[in-house]
Amino acid sequence: MGFHNVTHCIFDMDGLLLDTESLYTMAYNCVTQEYGKTYSWEHKAKIMGFKSAEALQKIIDMLQLPITVQTFEDKLAPIYQEVFPGCDLMPGAEKLLQHLKKHNIPIALATSSSEDSSDLKTQKWKHLFDLFDHKVYGGSDPEVVKGKPHPDIFLIAAKRFPDNPDPSKCLVFEDSPNGVQAGIAAKMQVVMVPDPQLPEDVFKNATLVLNSLEDFKPEDFGLPPFVA
């Protein structure tokens, strides 16, 4: 299949490990509909993986909303506080992370969310997110100057492993087209688990496309296999 063996794994969070994408859609629509505008899948596909402020500015521009990013954020904050602490895991996420940790495979989180936002979303799953060797929060980390689709976040995540592996030895897990672009730009292989509503033409750059993390076979990339 042409896959190369890896030694380290880097994970996106929203839509890949946590089922938050529908919550974001609902929250954004709560605000945009105040101005008679609907935030649709067409818009969502363009901003998935962006840093929060960049995503909100893009929505404002696309829908021609008469508000600032700060106002948008202020209106979203109470909605986030209400819905994010209850978010669920995506299928296969816990099994895969526990498996990699058990076999001492270094793992990192590389999310476009800020640290505060991530803490809110992972409240229920702290035991799982504590498994990561380190976490890079693109939305608040000063070292992440450019968000996805730029490679910065994945290169920084790789560099922060104690053994500073070559990017080619890192396997990225992503759900968004922008995230896949970022991983490829970082010279890493990328496993994509896209939302079924995304058009297939955005999958073409991914190393491997899966319906679910449950379908991932670690041995395809030289990692210890699941034991039945």
UniProtKB/TrEMBL annotation:
<dbReference type="Pfam" id="PF00702">
    <property type="entry name" value="Hydrolase"/>
</dbReference>
<keyword id="KW-0378">Hydrolase</keyword>
<keyword id="KW-0479">Metal-binding</keyword>
<dbReference type="GO" id="GO:1990738">
    <property type="term" value="F:pseudouridine 5'-phosphatase activity"/>
</dbReference>
<keyword id="KW-0460">Magnesium</keyword>
<dbReference type="InterPro" id="IPR036412">
    <property type="entry name" value="HAD-like_sf"/>
</dbReference>
<dbReference type="InterPro" id="IPR023214">
    <property type="entry name" value="HAD_sf"/>
</dbReference>
<dbReference type="GO" id="GO:0046872">
    <property type="term" value="F:metal ion binding"/>
</dbReference>
<comment type="similarity">
    <text>Belongs to the HAD-like hydrolase superfamily. CbbY/CbbZ/Gph/YieH family.</text>
</comment>
<dbReference type="InterPro" id="IPR006439">
    <property type="entry name" value="HAD-SF_hydro_IA"/>
</dbReference>
<dbReference type="InterPro" id="IPR023198">
    <property type="entry name" value="PGP-like_dom2"/>
</dbReference>
<protein>
    <recommendedName>
        <fullName>pseudouridine 5'-phosphatase</fullName>
        <ecNumber>3.1.3.96</ecNumber>
    </recommendedName>
</protein>
